[in-house]
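Q: I have 364 residues here and want to know how they pack in 3D. Can you give me a structure?
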Amino acid sequence: MTDPTATATATGAGPSAETFGERLFGAVIQAQLVQAAYLGDRLGFYRALAVEALTPPELAARTGTAVRYAREWLEHQAVAGVLTVDDAGAAPDERRFRLPAGHAEVLTDVLSPNHVLPLARMVAGIGQHMDALVGAYRSGGGVSWSDFGTDAREAQAAANRPLFLGALPREYLPSVPAIHEVLRHGGRVADVGCGFGWSSIGLALAHPGITVDGYDVDEPSVTEARRNAVEAGVADRVRFHCADAATAEGRYDLVTAFECIHDMPAPVGVLATMRRLAAPDGVVLVVDERVAETFTAPGDEVEQVMYGWSITCCLPDGLAHPPSVGTGTVMRPDTLRRYARDAGYADIEILPIEDDFFRFYRLR
């Protein structure tokens, strides 16, 4: 990862006003690109252009939008280097705009590991709640996941979907011997904080012998998870419960929490529930952000993006449900270790699974 803050020196003498001004100006341009990507996604522009090159009137007709807006958006995307144009010298409504294949993968291929568009939707969607965030910062309160609404829910699920249906169940988890045995012998799995259910569904698709119970307290997410399970053809082996996992009965061979412990207002209680649900020889797995082990400034791009999510989404959501420990996105290993020990575990083990954004923990 590159480090755009490398102009700062070890002595604390940061960049000049001119240099930092240029950096912020560049960020404004990129923020506008994110806003344009949000529009392109919501209005179906990218999906239409992924099929064939279109003129502004053709794009407007395909998407049910106004030609004048379609033309301006297309021209912005061409100027920004997202689209190419066949005949820039033609009359405005006769220019034909193309979406290159590589760009189309990032913007429209929902199963590609390169599908970054949901992150743009998340940023733009959260941007609609800045007034509420300002109020929370002043009061010490929060802005809940339900307040962030559809954009946050759908973008979060879409961002993780390629991993949860791909490398996670097919490569990462089978590389851990104890988990491999559970998956190979058709064990029972509890997926805590399952969201739209892609982690549960991915495990079931990759390992036909297992059964999965997914738990989440967000009703719209559970509704979508149930629909996704039906469409994936695994609803006979994957059940989703709109309930706190603390209400679950029985024991499981594998208990998981994928990218959600840092959001929990009371993570110790959740981890204790996971411990109770695990069979005597069961595996408890937590997957969370691969942030740096200690605070360092300036940080790399992963650290920056995780703090970005924390200050606008994860911390406000956590603090919206008092009493809350207020973890935030940047949950370092020592923080999880402390939570785990408070929940009755002996320790945590960082598993040797390499991923740019996630760290894998087995709780002993």
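Q: Anything worth noting?
A: DSSP finds 15 helices and nine strands in the chain. The chain has two domains: 17-108, 126-363.
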